[in-house]
Design goal:
The structure holds 2 protein chains of 2 kinds. Chain A has one domain. Chain A has a two-stranded antiparallel sheet with strand order 1-2. In chain A, 68% of the residues lie in helices and 1% in strands. Chain A contains 15 helices and 2 strands. In chain A, β1 and β2 form a beta hairpin. By secondary structure, chain B is α/β, with parallel strands linked by helices. Chain B folds into 2 domains: 186 residues, Rossmann fold (3-Layer(aba) Sandwich); 55 residues, no CATH class. Helix content of chain B is 36%, strand content 23%. Chain B has a 6-stranded mixed beta sheet, sandwiched between helices. Chain B has a 3-stranded antiparallel beta sheet with strand order 2-1-4, covered by helices on one side. In chain B, β6, α6 and β7 form a beta-alpha-beta unit. Classes of the chains: A mainly alpha, B alpha/beta. At the A-B interface, α3, α6 and α15 of A face β1, α1, β2, β4 and α3 of B.
Amino acid sequence: MPATATAEQEQPPTQARSYRSWSRAWQDLVEGSKQRQLWGHLGWQDIKQRYRRSVIGPLWITLSMAITAAGLGVLYSALFHAQIQTFLPYITVGFIVWNFMLGCLTEGTETFIRNEGLIKHLPAPLTVYALRTVWRLTLMFAHNMLVYFVIVAIFWSSLSEDGYVLTPGGNQEPGISWSIVFAIPAFVVLAINGGWVAILFGIISTRYRDIPPVIISLTQLAFFMTPIVWTTDILTKLPTGGAPPKWRILVAELNPLYHYIEILRAPLIGATQSWHHWVVVAAFTVVGWALAMLAMRNYRARISYWV
Amino acid sequence: MVSIDVWNASVDFPIFDAKSRSLKKAVLGKVGGKIGTEQKVPIIEALHDISVHLKEGDRVGLVGHNGAGKSTLLRLLAGIYEPTRGSSRITGKVAPVFDLGVGMDPEISGLENIMIRGLFLGMSRKQMEKRVDDIAEFTELGDYLQMPLRTYSTGMRVRLALGVVTSIDPEILLLDEGIGAVDAQFLNKARTRLVDLVARSGMLVFASHQDDLLFELCNTAIWMDEGQMKMQGSLREVLTAYKGKDPFAHMDAETIERLGQPPVLTSKSGEV
């Protein structure tokens, strides 16, 4: 024996026995978050990689968002007889936020699958890969926000006006004011939620490879079910006048994605902010992270076997 | 304090084929009642009942046939695989150099790969920037470092990987057999650096089929066979048993003394 096999080495210490432990899951989270330079570098690398050898590089993200926003904005403001000055910014912001959430869901499922090579060759906390995904999406969000700033600059007079409406006869919105600062905590909360989505869905998808296609097909439906290209005004007011049945508003209210979008969209376009969205989002954040930690506790050590 | 302790560890790989890897079995299997027998995921037992205790200064060679579990054992020692049964504890900064194609991004430049490797091994960006020149000089890749990694030959990749791990002072160095791909001249250079490194810090575990590399770098050895540890002892003993002949027999006394290998007969039996 090369090593001195003393009596204490014959038996493992108790803390080394169990791989399903909360402390190890927590340690993974803390250690992973500390390696900020690593996941920061990897996330940025992903963006650069995607647009390598293209002339305008990551600005393609911005450009494709601008084209989509302009197209959808013009079409849907015509369909809903809405004023383009306010409806186009509404759709743009909704679409930018949706893109971030969509990324968390679809790319989150592939967090560990895509990093198979690294996971099998270098020991690192799993959290690093989840943060790499969320950071990449955050950078894309930042690129898309350029479109937002341009559009706000163009339509500033309409958006800052108190009492503007999105669709004819809709709710009166207060207009952009100092309350725009709520967008900052709102995005932080969204990114925090991206973390648990990437960890939880990433772990499940690594084990069951059917999950990513399931998520992708559901997100398509979710996009149309969520008020992004349409507004909740339509749910509460009939175009012909008169009150629609009460249940119609539940289409939006029962959809968690609506609340996520609303906490960030409302301050950015100066729409009415409601605290109940924050409550719903906070509840989902707590439950989501609890589930993610449970998955980390039970299956963290299995990921390298599954990928 | 650098140490690796593994107690009765086994590593079982579940093999999910297309069918068993779906939700269908997990969900429908329970709902649908007894269709067929209980479907269990087939398992490959890559390592069975391994107990290893390594401490500072150990330089261990891993020998064994292909598929004997050398690479899996290295990954177990790196903490990449946590044992399915049994337990392990790793104390110290681990730097692995495994399959050289994987774990590096072929599309980005050598410099970028150096940076990412370094960050993974616990360095900061600034620390790595300081070392880049040193690595460039050691690997002799020069301007080639600006090229994407896919243009590199296997030997050049090995140079890069060795350049990174030897520049960052890891406490536990784990090398898989791939490093044999470099030319003799570079190997000499790397050898000096590796010996230095091991002398300075911690521990080395090295899987190789090349006896001369093992002689230079290791003093003890583990013989893996079919996922089990067949033998553990001094390098000479293990190699003699593994090869069926004493690999030191043809060497002159001076070389043997330089390598510090005691003759087989005088050392104690280390069979496990």
